[in-house]
Amino acid sequence: MNKAEFVNQLMQKTGMAKKEAQNAVDVALTMIVDANRGGKKVAFAGFGTFEVRKVKSMQRYNPRTGQRFTVPAKTVPKFRASKTFKQKVQD
Prior knowledge:
Blueprint: H1 3-14, H2 18-37, E1 42-44, E2 48-55, E3 58-61, E4 68-71, E5 74-81, H3 83-90
Antiparallel strand pairs: 1-2, 2-5, 3-4
Helix pairs in contact: 1-2
């Protein structure tokens, strides 16, 4: 399901106008990104947690040339599904 399909289903299930549903989805996603950017976790009980994690710099090598290089440290987004979510997906 892509974003447009998600918006369409939200419209059908809530009776919202398309513009309202699109705006609701955009605002919710923006709020999650902004909270993570600020270093905060966003947790939805029964769904999961969106958070940001720091990854250390790593030594890697190019298999073609054998040349070693360093991948710099970075911050990456992470989603961790709740136990309830995982159980519902398996059913």
